[in-house]
Amino acid sequence: MTDKDEILLRLKQPIVLVGLMGAGKTKIGGLLAEALGLPFIDADHAIEESAQCTIPEIFERYGEPAFRDLERKVLTRLMSQERKVIATGGGAVMNDETANLIWGSALSLWLKADLEILVERTGRTLGKRPLLQKGNPREILQGLMDKRYPVYARADVTVETTLAEPEANMARVLDALAVYLKDLEGKRA
Ligand code: S3P
Fold first, then answer.
1. Which pLDDT belongs to residue 81?
2. Separation of 10 CA from ligand 1 center, angstroms?
3. What is the pLDDT of residues 49-96, one digit of tens each?
4. Best substitution site from 112, 129, 147 to test ligand 1's pocket, by max atoms within 8 Å of Cβ?
5. CA pair distance 150, 129, nearest whole angstrom
6. 157-187: per-residue pLDDT in tens?
7. Is the pLDDT of residue 188 over 90?
8. Gap between the Cα atoms of 3 and 148, Å rounded
9. pLDDT at 185
10. List of residues 6+ apart from 55 with CB closer than 8 A
11. CA–centroid distance, residue 56 to ligand 1 (Å)
12. Which of 24, 55, 80, 90 has its CA 20 to 30 A from that of 134?
């Protein structure tokens, strides 16, 4: 059986990608959804649609706590439906309620990346990243890694992303998810 068939046979819940900005959640999540034939939703995009403005505008006009509240509401709505792939914003699981929702009802996947990759990838889109605009992006990202990596580590599956093509990273994700779901079934049997 292929990884795709293994996953589709056993998957019962949404797959939710977590990890820092620049780890590749949107790109790899989109490819993963395509490979599995499931819908793909980017939570940041859904938040922008719901607020009718961009993420930097939400931060600027209403502040981060209001953004987190909206993020929680949008994710609650998205999670209450069937199988799909959801890419979350990097801070989603730092809100306890959002985190409980994800750890409790999704198959969670942490895309883990090292600092160099995050600096390189976010450097191309700094204007879209309000949290990286108030200081040195490398130092901010290092601080976020220190704070968030112990939380992301609660995810069901962790895959380290590399600078290889997104398709190659996605293939490793498919493999890791198939192994996880097969093992889980073995443990339950
Ligand atoms: C954030 C990450 C962003 C976006 C917002 C806050 C964070 O999403 O939700 O700017 O707290 O790490 P990406 O991780 O998709 O860039």
1. 65
2. 30
3. 999 999 999 999 999 999 999 999 999 999 876 899 999 999 999 999
4. 129
5. 22
6. 999 999 889 999 999 999 999 999 999 988 8
7. no
8. 30
9. 84
10. 44, 47, 48, 67, 89, 128, 130
11. 10
12. 24
**How much distance in Å is there from the Cα of 168 to the middle of ligand 1?**
24
* CB of 106 sitting under 6 A from ligand 1: no
State whether the beta carbon of 130 lies less than 6 angstroms from ligand 1. Answer: yes
Tokens of 109: 């996947």
The predicted-structure confidence for 6-24, as pLDDT tens digits, reads as follows 999 999 999 999 999 999 9
Atom of ligand 1 nearest to the CA of 25: 15
* 127: its two tokens: 């204007």
* CA atoms of 59 and 131, how far apart (whole Å): 9
Closest protein CA for atom 5 of ligand 1: 89
**How many other CB atoms sit within 10 Å of the CB of residue 76?**
12
> Ligand 1 pocket, 129 CB below 6 A?
yes
Rg from Cα positions in the chain: 16
